[in-house]
Amino acid sequence: MFKSLVLIALGFALFAGCASVPMEGIERTAAAQKFNPPSEGSSGLYIYRSGSFGGALKKDVWVDGKCIGETAPNIFFYEEVEGDKEHKISTESEFSPNDLLIKAKSGMLYFIRQYIKMGVFVGGAGLELVDKEEGKKTVSDLKMATKGTCSK
To answer: 45: which strand partners?
Structure first.
């Protein structure tokens, strides 16, 4: 019984902590938060994680197999991709591969929320496409992480 309580307490401690990742400067963050249209022939992807649930967890994110970076609470990434093409956004998860396919139109911005899913002692992650206005509102309150560092 005592052993079970200790494991449960350790599990809660893991998810209550706060992970950190390399961050971009204020200028780059502010520029991305202007939500300007992407470059000609491209689509813009805002991939973000908001809130503190699962704060100790960092989860990798990829676009079309390319490492975008590790997420932590309250951060976002901005990535431009080729427009008028389907793209696969993926996140690391202990539960199953989690991919989101998006048919990205040129000139459009897309907002993808990464969320943490809890199991007994592990945390997985999922992805969902979010309404543009909701995405802009949320990303406006987040900080931009530096791209290119994945754990796997």
So the answer is: 79, 110
